Amino acid sequence: MIREMFVKLWLLQKRLLKRKSFLLLLCLAPLFAAGVGRLSEESAGIAAIAVYLPGEDAAAEEIADRLFDGESVLRYLPCKDGEEARACVESGEADAAWIFEEDLEERLKELAGRRRVRPVVTVLERSDSVPLILGREILTAAIYPAFSYAVYEGYVREELGMETITEEELRSAYERVAVEGSLFQMVYPDRTSAEAEDYGYVQAPLRGILAIWLTFCGLASALWFMRDEEKGVYERMPVAKRLVASYMTCAVVLADASAVLLFAVKLAGVFTEWKKEVVSCVVFAACVTAFANLLRLLCRTPQRLGLVLLPLGVVMLALCPVFLNLQHFRAGKMLLPPWYYLQSIHNVRYLYLMAAYTLILLLAGCVLQRRR
Questions:
Q1: Which of 176, 195, 214 is the last residue of a domain?
Q2: Domain assignment of residue 158, given as a range
Protein backbone atom coordinates (compact mmCIF):
# COMPACT_ATOMS: atom_id res chain seq x y z
CA MET A 1 0.00 0.00 0.00
CA ILE A 2 2.84 2.39 0.85
CA ARG A 3 4.63 1.50 -2.37
CA GLU A 4 1.44 2.11 -4.35
CA MET A 5 1.00 5.52 -2.69
CA PHE A 6 4.55 6.57 -3.57
CA VAL A 7 4.05 5.42 -7.16
CA LYS A 8 0.91 7.58 -7.41
CA LEU A 9 2.73 10.56 -5.94
CA TRP A 10 5.61 10.09 -8.36
CA LEU A 11 3.21 9.90 -11.32
CA LEU A 12 1.49 13.07 -10.13
CA GLN A 13 4.89 14.75 -9.85
CA LYS A 14 5.85 13.74 -13.41
CA ARG A 15 2.52 14.98 -14.69
CA LEU A 16 2.96 18.33 -12.94
CA LEU A 17 6.46 18.81 -14.35
CA LYS A 18 4.97 18.64 -17.83
CA ARG A 19 2.73 21.64 -17.05
CA LYS A 20 4.41 24.83 -18.27
CA SER A 21 2.15 26.94 -16.05
CA PHE A 22 3.34 25.01 -12.97
CA LEU A 23 7.01 25.46 -13.84
CA LEU A 24 6.44 29.16 -14.47
CA LEU A 25 4.67 29.47 -11.11
CA LEU A 26 7.62 27.83 -9.33
CA CYS A 27 10.15 30.09 -11.06
CA LEU A 28 8.39 33.28 -9.96
CA ALA A 29 9.39 33.00 -6.29
CA PRO A 30 13.19 32.61 -6.60
CA LEU A 31 13.37 35.21 -9.37
CA PHE A 32 11.44 37.67 -7.22
CA ALA A 33 13.57 36.88 -4.16
CA ALA A 34 16.80 37.30 -6.13
CA GLY A 35 15.58 40.65 -7.45
CA VAL A 36 14.67 41.87 -3.97
CA GLY A 37 18.00 40.66 -2.58
CA ARG A 38 19.86 42.50 -5.35
CA LEU A 39 17.79 45.63 -4.80
CA SER A 40 18.48 45.61 -1.05
CA GLU A 41 22.24 45.70 -1.71
CA GLU A 42 21.96 48.91 -3.70
CA SER A 43 21.47 52.38 -2.33
CA ALA A 44 17.76 52.90 -1.82
CA GLY A 45 15.39 54.89 0.33
CA ILE A 46 11.81 56.00 0.64
CA ALA A 47 12.92 59.58 -0.12
CA ALA A 48 16.03 61.30 -1.50
CA ILE A 49 17.42 64.16 0.61
CA ALA A 50 20.02 66.65 -0.65
CA VAL A 51 22.16 67.67 2.34
CA TYR A 52 24.61 70.56 2.67
CA LEU A 53 26.70 70.71 5.85
CA PRO A 54 29.46 73.30 6.41
CA GLY A 55 32.91 71.72 6.47
CA GLU A 56 34.71 73.35 9.41
CA ASP A 57 32.13 73.17 12.18
CA ALA A 58 32.13 70.78 15.16
CA ALA A 59 28.32 70.65 15.41
CA ALA A 60 28.05 70.00 11.66
CA GLU A 61 30.51 67.10 11.90
CA GLU A 62 28.52 65.57 14.76
CA ILE A 63 25.26 65.88 12.82
CA ALA A 64 26.89 64.41 9.69
CA ASP A 65 28.07 61.38 11.67
CA ARG A 66 24.54 60.76 12.92
CA LEU A 67 22.93 61.17 9.50
CA PHE A 68 25.37 59.31 7.28
CA ASP A 69 26.63 56.51 9.55
CA GLY A 70 24.68 53.26 9.44
CA GLU A 71 21.59 52.26 7.45
CA SER A 72 18.71 54.67 6.93
CA VAL A 73 15.31 54.62 5.26
CA LEU A 74 16.34 57.87 3.55
CA ARG A 75 18.82 58.26 0.71
CA TYR A 76 21.18 61.18 1.27
CA LEU A 77 22.83 63.21 -1.51
CA PRO A 78 25.75 65.24 -0.06
CA CYS A 79 26.14 68.63 -1.76
CA LYS A 80 29.01 71.13 -1.96
CA ASP A 81 26.88 74.17 -1.18
CA GLY A 82 23.32 75.31 -0.63
CA GLU A 83 22.75 76.22 -4.27
CA GLU A 84 23.55 72.67 -5.39
CA ALA A 85 21.07 71.32 -2.85
CA ARG A 86 18.38 73.69 -4.14
CA ALA A 87 19.12 72.64 -7.71
CA CYS A 88 18.65 68.96 -6.79
CA VAL A 89 15.14 69.72 -5.51
CA GLU A 90 14.25 71.90 -8.51
CA SER A 91 15.41 69.25 -10.99
CA GLY A 92 13.56 66.45 -9.19
CA GLU A 93 16.72 64.53 -8.29
CA ALA A 94 15.89 64.98 -4.59
CA ASP A 95 12.55 65.14 -2.78
CA ALA A 96 13.85 67.63 -0.21
CA ALA A 97 16.96 69.63 0.69
CA TRP A 98 18.45 70.26 4.14
CA ILE A 99 20.73 73.31 4.03
CA PHE A 100 22.60 73.91 7.29
CA GLU A 101 23.91 77.37 8.13
CA GLU A 102 27.63 78.14 8.06
CA ASP A 103 27.80 79.24 11.72
CA LEU A 104 25.82 76.23 12.93
CA GLU A 105 27.59 75.78 16.27
CA GLU A 106 27.24 79.45 17.15
CA ARG A 107 23.55 79.47 16.31
CA LEU A 108 22.94 76.40 18.47
CA LYS A 109 24.68 78.13 21.40
CA GLU A 110 22.55 81.25 20.90
CA LEU A 111 19.42 79.11 20.78
CA ALA A 112 20.47 77.19 23.89
CA GLY A 113 21.10 80.44 25.80
CA ARG A 114 17.84 81.94 24.51
CA ARG A 115 19.75 85.03 23.49
CA ARG A 116 18.68 84.99 19.89
CA VAL A 117 16.59 82.69 17.74
CA ARG A 118 17.97 82.13 14.26
CA PRO A 119 17.24 79.09 12.06
CA VAL A 120 19.94 76.41 12.02
CA VAL A 121 18.73 74.57 8.93
CA THR A 122 16.62 75.46 5.91
CA VAL A 123 14.31 72.71 4.63
CA LEU A 124 13.09 72.78 1.03
CA GLU A 125 10.49 70.22 -0.11
CA ARG A 126 8.81 69.57 -3.43
CA SER A 127 5.59 68.53 -1.67
CA ASP A 128 4.61 67.32 1.78
CA SER A 129 4.35 63.55 2.19
CA VAL A 130 4.59 60.83 4.84
CA PRO A 131 8.27 59.98 4.01
CA LEU A 132 9.22 63.64 4.33
CA ILE A 133 7.39 63.92 7.65
CA LEU A 134 9.47 60.97 8.83
CA GLY A 135 12.54 62.71 7.40
CA ARG A 136 11.91 65.81 9.50
CA GLU A 137 11.74 63.61 12.60
CA ILE A 138 15.11 62.07 11.64
CA LEU A 139 16.54 65.56 11.11
CA THR A 140 15.34 66.68 14.55
CA ALA A 141 16.85 63.58 16.16
CA ALA A 142 20.20 64.30 14.46
CA ILE A 143 20.30 67.95 15.61
CA TYR A 144 19.06 67.41 19.16
CA PRO A 145 22.29 65.93 20.69
CA ALA A 146 24.31 68.97 19.55
CA PHE A 147 21.63 71.30 20.91
CA SER A 148 21.46 69.33 24.16
CA TYR A 149 25.21 69.72 24.70
CA ALA A 150 24.98 73.44 23.97
CA VAL A 151 22.27 73.78 26.66
CA TYR A 152 24.42 71.77 29.09
CA GLU A 153 27.52 73.83 28.36
CA GLY A 154 25.69 77.13 28.78
CA TYR A 155 24.17 76.03 32.09
CA VAL A 156 27.50 74.87 33.54
CA ARG A 157 29.47 77.94 32.46
CA GLU A 158 26.87 80.64 33.12
CA GLU A 159 24.42 79.35 35.74
CA LEU A 160 26.96 77.41 37.83
CA GLY A 161 29.76 79.92 37.26
CA MET A 162 32.31 77.28 36.18
CA GLU A 163 33.80 79.36 33.38
CA THR A 164 37.32 78.06 33.88
CA ILE A 165 36.46 74.42 33.13
CA THR A 166 38.09 73.13 29.97
CA GLU A 167 36.21 71.81 26.95
CA GLU A 168 37.69 68.32 27.43
CA GLU A 169 36.54 68.12 31.06
CA LEU A 170 33.09 69.40 30.16
CA ARG A 171 32.70 66.95 27.28
CA SER A 172 33.93 64.04 29.43
CA ALA A 173 31.45 64.84 32.21
CA TYR A 174 28.61 65.14 29.67
CA GLU A 175 29.37 61.83 27.94
CA ARG A 176 29.52 59.94 31.27
CA VAL A 177 25.83 60.61 31.91
CA ALA A 178 24.61 60.76 28.29
CA VAL A 179 22.30 57.93 27.20
CA GLU A 180 23.77 56.08 24.22
CA GLY A 181 21.73 53.87 21.94
CA SER A 182 18.05 53.11 22.26
CA LEU A 183 16.03 53.22 25.46
CA PHE A 184 14.07 50.18 24.31
CA GLN A 185 15.01 46.67 23.25
CA MET A 186 12.72 44.98 20.74
CA VAL A 187 12.32 41.20 21.07
CA TYR A 188 9.87 38.70 19.59
CA PRO A 189 7.77 36.35 21.75
CA ASP A 190 10.37 33.58 21.20
CA ARG A 191 12.98 35.94 22.75
CA THR A 192 14.69 36.52 19.40
CA SER A 193 16.09 40.03 19.22
CA ALA A 194 14.76 42.19 16.41
CA GLU A 195 18.35 43.27 15.73
CA ALA A 196 19.22 39.65 14.85
CA GLU A 197 17.25 40.00 11.62
CA ASP A 198 19.83 41.77 9.53
CA TYR A 199 17.77 42.93 6.56
CA GLY A 200 16.35 46.22 5.38
CA TYR A 201 12.86 47.50 4.81
CA VAL A 202 13.02 46.44 1.13
CA GLN A 203 13.29 42.78 2.18
CA ALA A 204 10.78 42.98 5.05
CA PRO A 205 7.56 42.24 3.05
CA LEU A 206 9.15 39.38 1.10
CA ARG A 207 8.11 36.57 3.46
CA GLY A 208 4.49 37.74 3.43
CA ILE A 209 4.44 37.93 -0.37
CA LEU A 210 5.90 34.42 -0.62
CA ALA A 211 3.29 33.12 1.86
CA ILE A 212 0.51 34.49 -0.35
CA TRP A 213 2.27 33.03 -3.39
CA LEU A 214 2.28 29.56 -1.79
CA THR A 215 -1.43 29.93 -0.98
CA PHE A 216 -2.09 30.65 -4.64
CA CYS A 217 -0.06 27.57 -5.57
CA GLY A 218 -2.49 25.53 -3.47
CA LEU A 219 -5.48 27.21 -5.10
CA ALA A 220 -3.97 26.58 -8.54
CA SER A 221 -3.69 22.87 -7.73
CA ALA A 222 -7.37 22.88 -6.74
CA LEU A 223 -8.23 24.48 -10.09
CA TRP A 224 -6.18 21.87 -11.98
CA PHE A 225 -7.95 19.08 -10.09
CA MET A 226 -11.38 20.54 -10.94
CA ARG A 227 -10.46 20.78 -14.62
CA ASP A 228 -9.30 17.16 -14.57
CA GLU A 229 -12.61 16.20 -12.99
CA GLU A 230 -14.51 17.93 -15.78
CA LYS A 231 -12.36 16.14 -18.38
CA GLY A 232 -13.22 12.77 -16.82
CA VAL A 233 -9.72 11.93 -15.53
CA TYR A 234 -11.23 10.70 -12.23
CA GLU A 235 -14.36 9.17 -13.77
CA ARG A 236 -13.52 5.65 -12.55
CA MET A 237 -12.83 6.85 -9.02
CA PRO A 238 -15.77 6.95 -6.56
CA VAL A 239 -16.77 10.45 -5.48
CA ALA A 240 -16.09 9.55 -1.85
CA LYS A 241 -12.40 8.91 -2.65
CA ARG A 242 -11.82 12.01 -4.75
CA LEU A 243 -11.13 14.18 -1.69
CA VAL A 244 -8.07 12.05 -0.92
CA ALA A 245 -6.97 12.34 -4.56
CA SER A 246 -7.32 16.14 -4.43
CA TYR A 247 -5.29 16.23 -1.21
CA MET A 248 -2.56 14.15 -2.85
CA THR A 249 -2.45 16.44 -5.90
CA CYS A 250 -2.27 19.53 -3.72
CA ALA A 251 0.36 17.92 -1.47
CA VAL A 252 2.67 17.28 -4.43
CA VAL A 253 2.27 20.86 -5.67
CA LEU A 254 2.87 22.35 -2.24
CA ALA A 255 5.83 20.07 -1.50
CA ASP A 256 7.59 21.58 -4.51
CA ALA A 257 6.36 25.08 -3.65
CA SER A 258 7.50 24.75 -0.02
CA ALA A 259 11.02 23.79 -1.10
CA VAL A 260 11.06 26.80 -3.43
CA LEU A 261 9.75 29.07 -0.67
CA LEU A 262 12.53 28.00 1.72
CA PHE A 263 15.11 28.52 -1.01
CA ALA A 264 13.68 31.96 -1.87
CA VAL A 265 13.65 33.05 1.78
CA LYS A 266 17.29 31.97 2.10
CA LEU A 267 18.19 33.67 -1.18
CA ALA A 268 16.61 36.97 -0.11
CA GLY A 269 18.39 37.02 3.25
CA VAL A 270 15.34 36.81 5.55
CA PHE A 271 15.99 33.24 6.74
CA THR A 272 15.97 32.59 10.52
CA GLU A 273 16.68 28.98 11.67
CA TRP A 274 16.36 25.72 9.73
CA LYS A 275 14.26 23.91 12.31
CA LYS A 276 11.87 26.81 12.80
CA GLU A 277 11.55 27.52 9.08
CA VAL A 278 10.98 23.90 8.02
CA VAL A 279 8.40 23.09 10.72
CA SER A 280 6.42 26.28 10.09
CA CYS A 281 6.52 25.72 6.33
CA VAL A 282 5.34 22.09 6.60
CA VAL A 283 2.38 22.98 8.83
CA PHE A 284 1.60 25.94 6.59
CA ALA A 285 1.59 23.72 3.49
CA ALA A 286 -0.83 21.31 5.22
CA CYS A 287 -3.05 24.24 6.17
CA VAL A 288 -3.07 25.59 2.60
CA THR A 289 -3.92 22.09 1.30
CA ALA A 290 -7.01 21.90 3.53
CA PHE A 291 -7.93 25.54 2.83
CA ALA A 292 -7.70 25.23 -0.97
CA ASN A 293 -9.75 22.03 -1.06
CA LEU A 294 -12.43 23.48 1.19
CA LEU A 295 -12.76 26.42 -1.19
CA ARG A 296 -12.91 23.95 -4.09
CA LEU A 297 -15.82 22.14 -2.47
CA LEU A 298 -17.60 25.40 -1.65
CA CYS A 299 -17.21 26.88 -5.15
CA ARG A 300 -17.97 23.56 -6.96
CA THR A 301 -16.85 24.86 -10.39
CA PRO A 302 -13.49 26.20 -11.70
CA GLN A 303 -15.21 29.40 -12.88
CA ARG A 304 -16.47 30.27 -9.41
CA LEU A 305 -13.13 29.44 -7.82
CA GLY A 306 -11.37 31.62 -10.38
CA LEU A 307 -13.62 34.55 -9.50
CA VAL A 308 -12.66 34.19 -5.83
CA LEU A 309 -8.89 34.39 -6.41
CA LEU A 310 -8.48 38.14 -6.97
CA PRO A 311 -10.65 39.30 -4.02
CA LEU A 312 -8.95 36.71 -1.82
CA GLY A 313 -5.51 38.00 -2.81
CA VAL A 314 -6.51 41.58 -1.96
CA VAL A 315 -7.89 40.48 1.43
CA MET A 316 -4.70 38.56 2.25
CA LEU A 317 -2.52 41.56 1.34
CA ALA A 318 -4.67 43.82 3.49
CA LEU A 319 -5.16 41.67 6.59
CA CYS A 320 -1.95 39.62 6.75
CA PRO A 321 1.16 41.40 8.12
CA VAL A 322 2.85 41.81 4.75
CA PHE A 323 3.17 45.60 4.50
CA LEU A 324 1.09 46.65 7.52
CA ASN A 325 0.05 44.82 10.68
CA LEU A 326 -3.49 45.99 11.33
CA GLN A 327 -4.75 45.60 14.88
CA HIS A 328 -8.39 45.12 13.86
CA PHE A 329 -10.31 42.49 11.85
CA ARG A 330 -8.93 39.63 13.95
CA ALA A 331 -11.82 37.33 13.01
CA GLY A 332 -11.05 37.81 9.32
CA LYS A 333 -7.31 37.25 9.85
CA MET A 334 -7.91 33.93 11.57
CA LEU A 335 -9.50 32.55 8.39
CA LEU A 336 -6.35 33.13 6.33
CA PRO A 337 -3.47 30.57 6.42
CA PRO A 338 -0.70 33.13 5.64
CA TRP A 339 -1.56 35.04 8.81
CA TYR A 340 -0.81 32.00 10.98
CA TYR A 341 2.42 31.26 9.11
CA LEU A 342 3.79 34.80 9.38
CA GLN A 343 3.01 34.92 13.10
CA SER A 344 4.41 31.44 13.77
CA ILE A 345 7.96 32.34 12.71
CA HIS A 346 8.56 34.09 16.04
CA ASN A 347 5.71 32.72 18.16
CA VAL A 348 5.22 28.97 18.54
CA ARG A 349 1.69 29.56 19.86
CA TYR A 350 0.52 30.40 16.35
CA LEU A 351 2.08 27.19 15.06
CA TYR A 352 -0.26 25.20 17.30
CA LEU A 353 -3.17 27.45 16.29
CA MET A 354 -2.36 26.82 12.61
CA ALA A 355 -2.33 23.06 13.23
CA ALA A 356 -5.71 23.28 14.99
CA TYR A 357 -7.11 25.42 12.15
CA THR A 358 -5.87 22.80 9.67
CA LEU A 359 -7.78 20.06 11.49
CA ILE A 360 -10.95 22.20 11.43
CA LEU A 361 -10.56 22.73 7.68
CA LEU A 362 -10.01 19.01 7.11
CA LEU A 363 -13.12 18.15 9.10
CA ALA A 364 -15.20 20.73 7.23
CA GLY A 365 -13.90 19.36 3.90
CA CYS A 366 -14.84 15.79 4.84
CA VAL A 367 -18.36 16.89 5.83
CA LEU A 368 -18.88 18.74 2.53
CA GLN A 369 -17.53 15.82 0.51
CA ARG A 370 -19.92 13.40 2.24
CA ARG A 371 -22.83 15.73 1.47
CA ARG A 372 -21.87 15.69 -2.21
A1: 195
A2: 47-195
